[in-house]
Amino acid sequence: QMEFQLLDRMSFKRFCRLTNSRTIPDATTIWVFENRIGEAGAREIFDGVESQLFAKGFIPRGGQMIDATLVQAPTQRNTREENKLIKQGAMPA
Questions:
Q1: Which position among 4, 5, 60, 64 has the lowest Cβ density within 10 Å, counted as fewest Cβ atoms?
Q2: Domain boundaries in the chain?
Q3: 34 Cβ neighbours under 8 A, 6+ residues apart
């Protein structure tokens, strides 16, 4: 799954700092690394990443990916008559 995500998603490549990399680790390489560091090593890495996120003001939430793209929306102002129609449940033209 990790290999697929690295090949499929630019956000994963950026997070792992592999954006300009010509080679992405394959599943076997990732598996060997995982076995080499063990559960304690993995926990230490995750705790380190979490503390860096907290230091920057981010709150990590498990299992969520949020697109933080900001799009400017035009400001809409209704007239008083339109506001009255909206309050009555009608749709202004």
A1: 64
A2: 2-87
A3: 42
DSSP reduced 3-state for 70: coil
CA atoms of 25 and 7, how far apart (whole Å): 9
Cα→Cα distances 29→3, 50, 51, 72, Å:
9, 24, 26, 43
Alpha helix locations (H) across 1-93? 2-8, 10-15, 27-55, 80-87
Cα distance between residue 18 and residue 2, in whole Å = 13
Query: pLDDT tens digit string along 31-61?
Result: 999 899 999 999 999 899 889 988 988 887 7
